[in-house]
Amino acid sequence: MATRTIKRPQQIDSWVSFLRAHAAITRELSAQLQREHGLTLNDYEVLLHLSHAEGGRMRRVDLAQQVVLTASGITRLLEGLERSGFVCKETCASDARVSYAKLTGEGAAKLKVAAATHLRGIDELFLSRYSGSELTTLAELLARLPLTGADCKTSSEPCS
Amino acid sequence: MATRTIKRPQQIDSWVSFLRAHAAITRELSAQLQREHGLTLNDYEVLLHLSHAEGGRMRRVDLAQQVVLTASGITRLLEGLERSGFVCKETCASDARVSYAKLTGEGAAKLKVAAATHLRGIDELFLSRYSGSELTTLAELLARLPLTGADCKTSSEPCS
DNA sequence: GCGCTATACTTGAGGGCACAACTATGGCAA
DNA sequence: TTGCCATAGTTGTGCCCTCAAGTATAGCGC
C-alpha cells in the first residue's frame, strides 16, 4: 500500500497543493501583516488597488470584484479602514447610488510602510523556491485560473 | 498610463493571481459542496485524508497538519463531523492524551457521494484551462510551495 | 517520587466573510 | 408618468477559523 500508490490525476494534485499552500502561506503572511501593521491581507490588497486607481478612489463594487469579496464583505472591510482613517467615503455626483472609497494620505503612508515588510515576506516565499523562468511560468499559469467569481461559476454550471 | 505600465516583479504577479484565484475558486467550489452535500471544503479534505489513512483513523494533531488548521480548528471541525455521524472519536491505548478521529461507514459513504460532484467541479476548473503537460508543470511548481505552517514560518523569520 | 517542560486537546472570545433580506437609486418601456 | 427590473450598498445572522488560556498526560533529569 505504500509503494503501490494509486495514480491520482494531476488536476487533483494541483488542487490539493493549491489549497494547502494557500492555507499555509496566508496564515503566515497574514499573521505577519497583522502583527506588524494591524492589517489584513485583504486590507492590504484594497489599499494597494486604491493606490493604483485613478485619483486613488474606486467604486465599492469594483473594489469588491478586484479582491474577490462580496458586497457585504467590502462594506465591512472598508468600515475598518475608514475607522482607521486609511480610506474615506466619497459620493458620486452622477449616480447617487454609488459611493467611492478613496485612499487618504494616511492610508497611502500606511501602505508604503506595510509594503516594505510585506513584499519582503512574499519575496522570501517565492524567490527562494523558483528560478526566474519558473516564476514566469507560474505567473502565467496562475493567471489563467478564474479571477472573478463569475468566471468560476460558468465553468461549473453545465450539468444536465 | 494604460500602455506605459510599471513592470512588476513576477513573484508579485504570481502571488496576486494566487490570492485571487484561490478566493474565486474556493468560493464557488465551497458553495457547491455546501449546497449539494452540506460539507465545507475542509470537511471534505478531512474525510478524504481519513479515508486514505491506515484503519480510517488519524490523530487529531496529524489531521490538523494535513489540512493546515490549528489544533482548535480541528476540534471545531471534527465536532461538526461527529454530530453528523461521519467520524467518531477513538482513544489511544498507549497515550491517553491523543484521541483518534475515525471515519464511520456513514462518513465513507458521504465522501463517496460528495466526491462525485466535487471532483467534477475540480476537473471543469482545471482541465478546461490546462493541457496535460501544463498540469504536470503546475502541480510540480505548486508542490514546491510551503505545505505546512512551519515550512512557511522559517522562511520569513531572519530579520535582524 | 518530584518538578519541569513538551505535547495533545479543549474552551472562550473575537474577527472575517458569506448569504439573505432590505433600502435607495437608476434606467427603460408602455 | 407609472411600473418594473437592475444595480449599489447596508445590515442581521451565522459559520469558520484563529489566538490565548487552560486542562491533562507524557517523558525526563535528579
Low-confidence stretches of chain A: 153-160
* Helix-strand topology string of chain A: HHEHHEEHHH
Mean pLDDT of chain A: 87
Strand order of the largest sheet of chain A: 1-3-2
> Which chains make the largest contact?
A-B, 60 and 59 residues
Q: State the oligomer.
A: homodimer
The secondary-structure class of chain A comes to: mainly alpha
Q: Specify the overall morphology of chain A.
A: globular
User: Distance between termini of chain A?
Assistant: 37 Å
By DSSP, the count of extended strands of chain A is 3
* Count of discrete alpha- or pi-helical segments spanning 4 or more residues of chain A: 7
Strand content of chain A: 5-15%
Features:
homodimer, 160 residues, mainly alpha, 64% helix, DNA-binding
Account of the protein in words:
The structure is a homodimer. By secondary structure, the first copy, chain A, is mostly helical. Chain A is about 65% helix and about 10% strand. Chain A is built from seven helices and three strands. Chain A has helices at about 10-35, 40-50, 60-65, 70-85, 105-125, 130-145, 150-155, and strands spanning about 55-60, 85-90, 100-105. In chain A, strands 1-3-2 form a three-stranded antiparallel β-sheet. In chain A, a hairpin with a 7-residue loop joins strand 2 and strand 3. The longest helix of chain A is centred in the first third of the chain and has 28 residues, at about 10-35. Chain A is globular, with a radius of gyration of 19 Å. Residues about 155-160 of chain A have low confidence and may be disordered. At the A-B interface, helix 1, helix 5, helix 6 and helix 7 of A face helix 1, helix 5, helix 6 and helix 7 of B. The structure holds a DNA duplex (30 and 30 nucleotides).
